[in-house]
Amino acid sequence: MRIGILYQYGLLSSGSGIYVARLAQGLCALGHNVGIICWEHEPEGHSFIEAAYQGRGDQVQTLFQRQPSPRCWLHLLDGQAPVAYPRVEAPERPLFTQLSDEEIEAHVADLADQVTEVVLRHRLEILHANHVVLMPYVAWLVKERTGIPYVVTVHGSTIEYVVVPDPRYRPYAEQGLRKADRVIVLNEDVRERTLALCPQARIVEVPVGVDTRVFRPA
């Protein structure tokens, strides 16, 4: 299966970044083709990423390619993404709560255009969006355009740091969760917070995994 993973940060920026990286590696090990669509500015530092691209339209560039037919690749999104809370590694990035209504709408529209293009170029078959804003809403827009299904993993932080303090984001979160084919939660606490936000979400609980090749009882 050709899978696209949507993520709004870099792969080493937080626990959810580690989750995305390990998920991509695991899916590739199972024989899937995986594209990570995110703001990772140093993709060459991840040995499991076999190719990386940037740009849109006829301006797409290959940043590097390690294999003739990459099993795991990354597309670096254009623009400057907002963050849920101040990031030490990206102090210049604005907070979601600092954006104007016009900036939110423009950011969503631009992301939907970029992701749609990547989906069509790589003939992706499913999207996996991470966090409750704004990637699930973007995935829904792309589904409306292309028919591609999507699932969401809720990590929790954007509920507490974005949706709760800034009600402008609630409709985006609710729509993105409601229209998802499945919503993955990592524990019971996140399940409860997700259902409080969107009771219609089709939830499945998949606890965070452990790589037993690295961590195992002594």
Please give the structural blueprint.
Layout: E1 2-6, H1 15-29, E2 33-38, E3 51-54, E4 61-65, E5 72-76, H2 101-122, E6 126-130, H3 135-146, E7 150-154, H4 157-163, H5 170-178, E8 182-185, H6 188-197, E9 203-205
Parallel strand pairs: 1-2, 1-6, 2-5, 3-5, 6-7, 7-8, 8-9
Antiparallel strand pairs: 3-4
Overview of the molecule:
With 218 residues, the protein is of the alpha/beta class. Helix content is 34%, strand content 19%. The chain has six helices and nine strands; from the N terminus they run E-H-E-E-E-E-H-E-H-E-H-H-E-H-E. Helix 1 links the parallel strand 1 and strand 2.
pLDDT < 50 runs, ≥5 residues:
none
Strand order of the largest sheet: 4-3-5-2-1-6-7-8-9
> Which range best describes the helical content: under 10%, 10-25%, 25-40%, 40-55%, 55-70% or over 70%?
25-40%
**Biggest sheet, in brief?**
9 strands, mixed
Based on DSSP secondary structure assignment, what is the total number of beta strands? 9
Amino- and carboxy-terminal Cα gap: 36 Å
Q: Estimate the mean pLDDT confidence.
A: 95
Q: Categorize the overall geometry.
A: globular
**CATH homologous superfamily?**
Glycogen Phosphorylase B
Number of structural units classed as domains: 1
Estimate what percentage of residues fall within beta strands: 15-25%
